[in-house]
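Predicting holo structure, adenosine-5'-triphosphate bound.
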Amino acid sequence: MFSIAVSKRRIGFELEVAIEVPRPGVVALFGRSGCGKTTLVNIVAGLVAADQARIAIDGVVLEDSLLGQRVPAHRRRIGYVFQDARLFPHLDVRGNLRYAQRRASRVPARIGFDQAVQLLGLEALLRRRVHQLSGGERQRVALGRALLAQPRLLLLDEPLAALDAARRDEVLPYLEMLRDELSVPMIYVSHQFEEVLRLATHVVLMEQGRVVVQGGLDDISLHPRLRAIVGPESVGAVLLGRIENDGDGRLATVCIGENVLSVPMRAARRGAMVRVQLLARDIILATSRPEGLSVRNMLTGRVSRVSGDDADTDLVQVDVGGAHIMARVTREATAALGLRGGLRVWVLVKAVSIRGHAFAGGASLEVLKSSIGMGSDAAQ
Ligand SMILES: Nc1ncnc2c1ncn2[C@@H]1O[C@H](COP(=O)(O)OP(=O)(O)OP(=O)(O)O)[C@@H](O)[C@H]1O
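Done. Tokens:
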């Protein structure tokens, strides 16, 4: 469990944040540039002084202004990975990793050298100098170095922001693996929703120094303020399901509550938890059961909410057996179909427009299962 309650004033900016997360996993701090994400993680790391702070991780109090306690940054045992890797250029990869390991020699080692090297795929890079590494490889080494410092918390401040899309895709699976294999809690700062979608087990949506909403991604994805950050094209429901059939690495069958969806997934594994994003722009609603369509995914449910999206469109939320899907329709369509709360509708979504990301297991799986009230046998 970690809890953070901080306040800090600067000219023209005020940070006032309280976060409480019960288990390990990845807490994503998500929000527009300037909302205070970096200031917050710098306060947690002890690099910036807050006006008021109470920061505790697993019962260890790192800062409590009321009691006058403040553990200095170098004693907090917090690993920090920045946008740029900040490796020692005069050392090779092994030297960079060993340096971190030596500095943590008095702390009981939860993560060994070989384990970190293997988890991050660094075997072939150990003798390379920093200038011989790609941006993605540098970030993997920076992650390894942070882990070998045996942190009680890992802070990742936009670790992929300086990488191009191909390099980001190369590093993301390693981050997913760390989340699933280790029990080190992480705070992940990003303004890329794609990264949040893949990594977060708990999301904190921030705006102008405040928390707008925090919780599971399924709830956050429906929050009206998310639109202002991700833009209208990226608004949509994020649902949690379980892979029923891996579809030979093409179209997996995913159970979401009582519903079944066909989802394109390359690395699907039967029984694995999966997070599925259905963009509001890709959803079609019908008020009677359509026939003779090529669309593979058809669900039925009841309209739970209709809200204005912009001048010409509405966002329609549909409850499909407890899961909520959001569709964007023109206001004309809302009127023509008589869309209103309680109306039965059919929800159509082309399989190719669905994005699915598997959660392999480990700590995050437990967090996710508990957040949706599933027993521990649910993923068997
Ligand atoms: N050292 C500083 N002195 C004064 N103001 C600062 C300082 N660092 C940041 N700020 C201001 O504090 C506010 C929050 O900045 P912060 O860097 O925490 O936001 P952020 O959400 O991390 O943004 P980004 O995504 O661009 O990194 C901004 O208004 C910023 O201009």
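Residues 165-181 form the longest helix (17 residues).
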